[in-house]
Amino acid sequence: MSRYPITKKKTRNRRHYVAVSKYEANNACGEVFLVTLKARRKRTISQLITRFLSNVNEDRIEDAKMKIGSIVVKCRDFNKMMAFWQEALHYVPTQPAKNGWVILRDPEGRSPNISLDLAGDKERLATSRNPRLHLDLYAENQEDEVNRLLKIGANLHPQTYNPEDDFIVLEDPDGNLFCVVQI
To answer: Which fold has domain 70-182?
Structure first.
């Protein structure tokens, strides 16, 4: 939450003042909005903001103006990648794959889609040495999930780990990095 300047106005009773504050805040839906609060004391402004943000209704997620709809991964071996990500995440296609394009969705509708897009012959792709982005997959049993992913086509990425690291870096069949994080 970033704070805008406070403007103070004295009321007729000089013992009290009204502080008008504007705050930019993010609610639970990820929406950014401007909050204007008036309070008689400075300390109550932060209390009002805390109360306002804690009362955000979870049902407003559907009203969010923007959300992640799909994470698009360019790939060379389309069929192998589609089979891998379907098995890895237990996702299903929204429609049959067509012309090197498919959107894989979470059957429970809780997580963003993963879309696979077949790259053209001359199209430059990210590599494990030069990744553009990566996914963090959260797992309750990291060891079992890593073993399962290795069996279906992932590769262990050469990585030096610190003792406090809670992730393991893998590569999908096209060499794109992703992490399996212990939660």
So the answer is: 2,3-Dihydroxybiphenyl 1,2-Dioxygenase; domain 1 (3.10.180)
